[in-house]
Write a structure and sequence with these properties.
Pfam families: FabA (PF07977)
Protein name: 3-hydroxyacyl-[acyl-carrier-protein] dehydratase FabZ
CATH class: Alpha Beta
CATH superfamily: Hotdog Thioesterase
Organism: Lachnoclostridium phytofermentans (strain ATCC 700394 / DSM 18823 / ISDg)
Structural class: alpha+beta
Largest sheet: 6 strands, antiparallel
Order of helices and strands: HEEHEEEE
Catalytic activity: a (3R)-hydroxyacyl-[ACP] = a (2E)-enoyl-[ACP] + H2O
Enzyme class: lyase
Strand content: 35-45%
Length: 141
C-alpha cells in the first residue's frame, strides 16, 4: 500500500510544518511501514540549525520515524482517529548527518503491542548510509 501526503494526513494528526513524512512506500497495518522524507534546503528548521551549515536535528529524524510508526499503529481500524504519543525512545544512535538533498528512507517495524502501547524498531537510511536507529515506544490515546 502506497500513501501520498494527503493520505498520510488522513491517518495521523500531524500538519505542516511538522509533518515530516512525504510518502509511505509500503504499509502493512499494525506490522510495519517504509516511508520517505525528501529533505530540502527550504525546511524551516534549517534557518537556525545551523546557518551556513544546515543539519537536520536528530530529534526531528526520530520524529519522522515516529510519524511512520504512527501510520503503522493508526492504520488499524481500532485506532482510527486516535492520537499517538511517545512512550519512550531507547537505543537511539545517530550515525550520519542529514543535510539538504538527502532522501531518507524511514523504516519502522512493530516488535510488540499490548493494549494501547507498542514498541517498534526504527531506522532512517539512504542507499549509502544509516542516519539514525532507535527503539520507539508508542502510546495511543
Amino acid at each position: 500500500m502506497v500513501l501520498n501526503c494527503n493520505e498520510i494526513m488522513d491517518i495521523i494528526p500531524h500538519r505542516s510544518p511538522f509533518l515530516l513524512v512525504d510518502r509511505i512506500l509500503e504499509l502493512v497495518p499494525g506490522i510495519r511501514a517504509i516511508g520517505r522524507k525528501c529533505v530540502t534546503f527550504n525546511e524551516p528548521f534549517f534557518t537556525g540549525h545551523y546557518p551556513g551549515n544546515p543539519v537536520m536535528p536528530g530529534v526531528l529524524i526520530i520524529e519522522a520515524l515516529a510519524q511512520v510508526g504512527s501510520v503503522v499503529m493508526l492504520s488499524l481500524e481500532e485506532n482510527k482517529g486516535k492520537v499517538p504519543f511517545f512512550g519512550g525512545i531507547d537505543k537511539a544512535k545517530f550515525r550520519n548527518m542529514v543535510t539538504p538533498g538527502d532522501v531518507l528512507t524511514l523504516e519502522v517495524s512493530l516488535l510488540k503491542q499490548k493494549g494501547p502501547v507498542g514498541v517498534a524498531t526504527a531506522k532512517a537510511y539512504d542507499d549509502e548510509k544509516v542516519f539514525a536507529e532507535a527503539e520507539l515506544t508508542f502510546v495511543i490515546r
